[in-house]
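job 3f2a | input accepted
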Amino acid sequence: MGLQQTLRALADPIRREILNLLREGKRSAGEIVEEFSVTGASISRHLSVLKEADLIRDTRVGKYRFYEINTSVLEDVMLWITELKGEQDDKEQ
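job 3f2a | predicted structure (93 res):
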């Protein structure tokens, strides 16, 4: 996915908190919903945005869906930021 879509997904505080939860390991959609004071439908939409941005993956086990973080996309964003910062450092010298 594109950088713009990734940054848009990261812009929302609830989505960032979902990513923080998933740092600890896989969680079911129900477990994620329990952590927030918003509706399950709202969390479902946030999960969809994160999935579309390729920041999370999901797997189905029986009737449950489990989500986990996809760190490769975050690594790409960090690399881009590092490169951008490096270019700015070069201009200052």
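job 3f2a | Strands lie at 27-28, 56-61, 64-69.
job 3f2a | closed
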